[in-house]
Amino acid sequence: MADDKDVLRDVWFGRIPTCFLxxxxxxxxREAEPYYLLLPRVSYLTLVTxxxxxxxxxxxxxxxxxxxxxxxxxxxxxxxxPIGVLFDLHASNTVLPWSITVHFxxxxxxxxxxxxSHSVIEAHFMSSIKEADALKHKSQVVNDMQKKDHKQxxxxxxxxxxxxxWAMNRKLMEYPTEDGGFRFIPFxxxxxxxxTFIATFLLCFVPxxxxxxxxxxxxxxxxxxxxxxxxxxxxxxxVSPEGHVHTLGDLLKEVYPVAxxxxxxxxxxxxxxxxxxxxxxxxxxxxxEHLSHPDSFLHICVIxxxxx
Amino acid sequence: MVWFREGIYHLNxxxxxxxxxxxxxxxxxxxxxxxxxxxxxxWEGQLLVREGVSRDCPKGTSWVTVDSPSPDVGATHVAVxxxxxxxxxxxxxxxxxxxxxxxxxxxxxxxxxVGEMIMINVGLNDQxxxxxxxxxxxxxxxxxxxxxxSGKTWRAITVPRDGDRSHSSASASxxxxxxxxxxxxxxxxxxxxxxxxxxxxxxxxxxxxxSSSPESLVDAPTxxxxxxxxxxxxxxxxxxSELVSDREPPKTSREETPPAVLExxxxxxxxxxxxxxxxxxxxxxxxxxxNVDLEEAQIQQTGVVLDSLDTCSLSxxxxxxxxxxxxxxxxxxxxxxxxxxxGCNVDSHSQLNWFNSMNxxxxxxxxxxxxxxxxPAQTAAWRRQIFxxxxxxxxxxxxxxxxxxxxxxxxxxxxxxxxxxxxxxxxYKWIDVHFALEQFSGAEGNKDGILFIYYNFYEEKKYLHxxxxxxxxxxxxxxxxxxxxxxxTPERTKQRWPIRLSAATELEMQDWLALLSVSCCDSRGIQGxxxxxxxxxxxxxxxxxxxxxSPSLEAMPYPTPCDQMFWRxxxxxxxxxxxxxxxxVWGIGYDHTAWVHTGGYGGGxxxxxxxxxxxxxxxxxxxxVYIYENQRWNPVTGYTNRGLPTDRxxxxxxxxxxxxxxxxxxxGWQYAADFPALYHGHKTLKDFVRRRRWARKCKLxxxxxxxxxxxxxxxxxxxxxxAAQISVDVVPLWAISNKGDVLCRLGVSTLTPAxxxxxxxxxxxxxKSISIGAASQVWAxxxxxxxxxxxxxxxxxxxxxxxYHIPSPAKQKLKQVSVGRTSVYTVDENGNLWxxxxxxPSYxxxxxxEHISNNVRKVSVGPLDQVWIIxxxxxxxxxxxxxxxxxxLGVQPMEPKGQSWDYGIGGGWDHITVRGNCxxxxxxxxxxxxxxxxxxxxx
Lengths: 308, 939
Prior knowledge:
The complex is a heterodimer.
Chain A lengths: L3 H9 L2 E8 L12 E6 L9 H8 L11 E4 L2 E2 L6 H9 L6 E6 L14 H20 L2 H5 L2 H12 L3 H11 L14 E5 L1 H10 L5 H8 L2 H5 L8 E2 L15 H8 L13 E4 L11 H7 L7 E7 L4
Parallel strand pairs in A: 1-5, 6-9
Antiparallel strand pairs in A: 1-2, 3-4, 3-5, 6-7, 8-9
Chain B lengths: L1 E5 L10 E5 L5 E6 L5 E5 L4 E5 L10 E5 L8 E6 L4 E5 L3 E6 L10 E14 L5 E5 L5 E5 L10 E4 L12 H10 L15 H4 L9 E4 L3 H10 L7 H17 L12 H4 L23 H4 L3 H7 L11 H11 L13 E5 L17 H17 L6 H17 L15 E10 L7 E12 L5 E11 L2 E8 L5 E7 L2 E7 L1 H6 L3 E5 L2 H19 L10 E5 L4 E4 L19 E4 L5 E4 L5 E4 L5 E4 L19 E18 L3 E3 L10 E2 L16 E4 L16 E16 L1 E3 L5 E6 L13 E5 L4 E5 L10 E5 L5 E6 L5 E5 L4 E4 L12 E4 L7 E6 L4 E5 L4 E5 L10 E6 L2 E6 L5 E5 L2 E2 L4 E2 L2 E6 L10 E4 L5 E5 L26
Antiparallel strand pairs in B: 1-2, 3-4, 4-5, 5-6, 7-8, 8-9, 9-10, 10-11, 11-12, 12-13, 14-15, 16-17, 16-22, 17-18, 18-19, 20-21, 21-22, 23-24, 23-53, 24-25, 26-27, 27-28, 28-34, 29-30, 29-31, 29-33, 32-33, 35-36, 36-37, 37-38, 39-40, 40-41, 41-42, 43-44, 44-45, 45-46, 47-48, 48-51, 49-50, 51-52
Helix pairs in contact in B: 3-4, 3-8
């Protein structure tokens, strides 16, 4: 691999081998076979599981079936997070394939959004792109696009068409050369639930200034699963006022210092994007251009280092 | 006569006896499928279908006649499989029979397929092999599946011959694994036929015969005086004449024609699973031919049996192969005449690597080394970490699970839009059309696509289409306030009539161009920066194009035709570009600014995928356009813009005008007694006309992989062309400044292509063109049109010591020079191309100028002494073009002047350099003739 373009392809064509198992409590007419699928990391669960639904509908009483939802080791999986983020956050460092439990009953209203149709996913996806472009270009690029251009982005994702998507997405990735990057980097930092607990605990020991950087969203710390924003999102520029290029390390130091190893201390957390751990000196602008999800956000997962 | 072999069964494969089958006419060819299909071709051009063939009655019951696919042109060949029938007609068209099934062996109708073939054959599970009439390469029908029996597209198979083995082991092994073998044992036999070769007892064997008629080969030595040492060359001539006769319209005598090659069938083949290397036969009776390469011949001779004197003709085939060691190599490309894949079982899902060309792999390598050497930032630790971890992730998460079902099914992606099209019929004008690009994944995962243009022709809806992998270049043409671009295919380059389209806005045009460009590059597997060998060219609009040369671009005697070269655009705006084979590329803008290539690609409107990211810079260029306002004096109104009927236009271009050197008055007017004349800057009583010049400065700003080399403005530049194997640390680079000074750049290397400083080289007068050859021979053209040779240039003395004056050809003023390995070519102001005679190492100035051609605008001579020009007045079938890229054919070490021109892309081209291409044409490796796609019909 010699070119940055290959990174875009690798990111796009990342797949997670997944085994879908029907929840034991579902009433079936005969035993349900597991269903194996390669899920695109950059897509959404409810967008790519029509086959799963069809498969399990064959064995359950369809009139009993309510909306399908997914759960991994007791955690309901939010369809509106990219699949890769869900996997990195909850299941990285586990044995593949990823075993997801499929439910057709007892929809966890408090944890999950309903997803009655693909158009809901499209609306969510497009609003993410618009939000990101507001950060990157004051919405100028996305507003200059026509309806059909928006459609092209969505269809590209829905049909797994890399070229179709990037033919349009490249416009969202442009910036004036003299600026050296976007206005702000659209990013979201997710914390493992266990980690959230530790972070809250550690709050007592970190300087007040650092607390301020994420106390703007304290709800996320107190009740991560119930909040609509259980992630950290702030305005952060790719280049410092002095003209220094900001790195991934700079970002974490600013908005989530807990994720960084203490001086001399052991590494406690992994900073994972698309299943890999970029070095902390990686320029943030480059990350944003190459490792963002199709929704234009850089989704960063901070998870504890596996104990073994 | 058709005979049926009785009594063939498992334990008695040879059968028991022949039984005649009655016929309604005279059969010239027959094809029996693995199932129950039997079709034959009649002399009159119709086809016969055997009905009632079944397990109980393998002989069938009766014949049914089926008309030839095309009413005026008879069928010449038929090939059947389990469920398919393919036929060829005399005009080499390919036909697929619709509606064939076990209940209906006759089918229901013919479908005309793309491509022109002279021979077609169907394998065990309906896979198709064919030989193209155009290039005589072996083609495989890709995409044949049980649901799509007609397949998708023709793909050339790269087939080296026996003698090539030792030189191309990679492709040889891939062919072996694919089950294609060259008939090791060639035996003269009188009754070879398709039917017989299908009898092959071994699966996975297919036979190929090169087109070598016994007549021509036997004749060759006798026609030629015995003392002539180069028999192979004679053979190649007979090939050529044979080729020509092949392409002639159907001949008078039926017996000689259908297709000419079939006649030569006495060279039948027996499938043979011997080591293919063992298959070269050496004629024991002809010592003259044995001296080609005895050593190799003996190694290869193991196990060869020549069983009759008849084989003398065949042996010449073998000799001919070996003789390719000869540097003046005869034919370097096999021209196939027959293919039999009757025993070839190709699974429709299997990945075939018959098509892999060395071209592609070497390209990838050079691409990689390029991006690594050029931008050290690429190798930053964090980037390397990401690359490595991503491939680890692929291994971890995907490698063991590739058998899992994909969540999203692949489908075709279509992008549509509306545009205007410069229609193909008179009166020519722009008409509204719908435009669509359909993209899909090819069978091997490569992208491919088709362009469609939907238009109305007198109320009737029609469309024309072009295959993306057939497109050779996309040229933006901004004029008449139209945002238009031209799409060329080889066919349209020949016609000088591209598909011209115009988008509503410039942005829309650029979107389409960027998308189409990526699509074209994808379909050809081209990505990343240009290779070091790339040819660069510039249009008269300053747009820059680059083309990756195929190894056979300079092959003799069959180089890749010029019109098949694929050109892609590189961002930036230049007037001149020069390169050499270690990847140093310099450019000069219209404003004389010097630029050096950063090793990137894209820029301009190529953003995102079509462009590199970290070595693209802003580039600006400017150009002045002048127009003259002319006035005539009359007694009533004084000077007005009302001229005499014989006068020039009152606004004229600069034609016939001189510089405003005679001065001007305060309003810029120059005066004279009449047009045309010498002008002066103040009005006198005798002045009846006056003129003034309006200048308009155009400036454009774009981006591209170019960095400025300040501060001196240049008018010409040249870089030492290096031979492939020689590595030089410091590369000599010479230039001419805007003022005519000769400059020598110091410190130019692959790591610092921009060099460090200029060294001034003194001259008696200003110079305008300069070129340095592979042996550091520097030639230059002075402003007065004469040439100069610089003596004693070497690595120690990079600027040489003195100029030797060389007079120009009689009455001509030279304007440009290019020096290759040894050849020196110049172009004069009247468009004549001159070759310098008598240049020797001891007398590098040469003796005289020899006229080569006229209508030449510019010349570029490369490190192989290959000669490329920009020519004016090239006639195409649809129009004349000026500014066309042309390639000199027949250039050889002993014949550096070549013989004729091959015409490539144009018109509208202004500059070309081929000085990067030092790839010696494959001496004995099979030229990758098949790397080019078959032509699609241009509707």
